[in-house]
Amino acid sequence: MSIFVLVIGILGAYVVVQFPLYYTSISISQLTASYLAQEGAEIVRNIRDTNLIINPGDWDNWLITSKGADCEAPEFCETDYNHPALVSRSGSANFLKIDSNNFYNYEIGNTSKFTRKITITPDGSEKLKISVIVYWYEKGQDRQFEVREDLYKWRD
Fold it and tell me: Which sequence spans correspond to the domains of the chain?
């Protein structure tokens, strides 16, 4: 009888410990995905701001089809902090890699579980709709985190 009670106690403790570990792992991945999505939006914003400083008339240069990268659905773009330019893609997204300094990029390091798609859709002549979705697979499920943003031509 005492062995039975001991086994039940150990199994109960095991379940209590495993439950938070399961959700901690998911929470860490969601936080990482949110940072990667925000980084993608920030790079697009940086391209817009640089364009506005250099030539306000071409504020959306390399952000829409007629001026460079084709980031309109079903096409999408990829970028990372090392190369703040958009690369047009179709089909499957590349997995981001994580380097020895824990920075995510597409060139060096170990392949991570995350992919990132940036979609830019024109909405009038002075507005772009940005969608950055980070995808990953964890604990038997496909997961994603999305950031949406509107960018405007803020300078004439």
Answer: 2-152
